[in-house]
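Entry type: protein chain
Record version: 2
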Amino acid sequence: QTKKLNIFQAGFNGLLDVARQTYKETVNDLNEIIDQYREQYQIPIKTQFSSTTGFYLSITTEQLEDKQLPLVYINVKKRRKTLTFTTLEVMKKNTKINDSLTEVYLMSDKTIEDLISEIRGGIGVLYKVSESIAMLDMLTSFAHQCTVSNYVRPEFTDTLAIKNGRNPMRESLYTDTFVPNDTYASSTTNFQLITGPNMSGKSTYLRQIALM
C-alpha cells in the first residue's frame, strides 16, 4: 500500500500531493483517537490493519485481566486469547481513509496514462537510440575480438579462399590450441568431399566455414 501511495515523488502532481496529504492526516487523526482511548480507559489496546476491514483494535484476554471492555468498543470478536473490536469513530476514519486511497489510486493511474501518452509520441526515437546502441555494441565487440584473436577483414569475391581459418566459436569455448584449416571453392570447384573418422573435426570444419 505504501508503494502505491508513493509511486510519484512529491511535487510531481499537485492534486495528487493534496490527496496523499489528506490520507496521511486522516491516519494521524485515527492514531490520536486510539491514543485517547488508551489514556481514557487505561487498557493497552493495539492498532491492527486488515486489507478487507481496514484499521481495527485488539487486546489479549491476559492484558484485559478482569476488566470489562467499555461500551464504546463494538463488533467484539474473540479469536483464541485475542479480542478484536472497533468503534464508531474508527469506522468513520476507515471510510475516510478508503475514500482518500481511492482518490490517490485514481489520480496515480491517470498520471501514469498521461506519462504513457507523452512517451508514446517519442517511442520512435527510443527505438532508434536502442538500435544505435546495439550496433555500437556489436562493432565494439567485433573490434575487440579481432584485436585479441588476430582476425583479419575478409574480401568478398566470387571465389571462397580461406587461409589458416579458425572456428571462432570453438576458440571461445575451449582453451586448447585450434589447428587452422584452409578452404577453397569456386565456380569450377564447387563441390568438396570431406572424409575422416568420427570426432576428427568434420562438423567443426563445416561450421567454421559457415560462421566465416
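Comment: The helical segments are 2-5, 14-41, 61-64, 88-120, 123-149, 168-173, 202-211.
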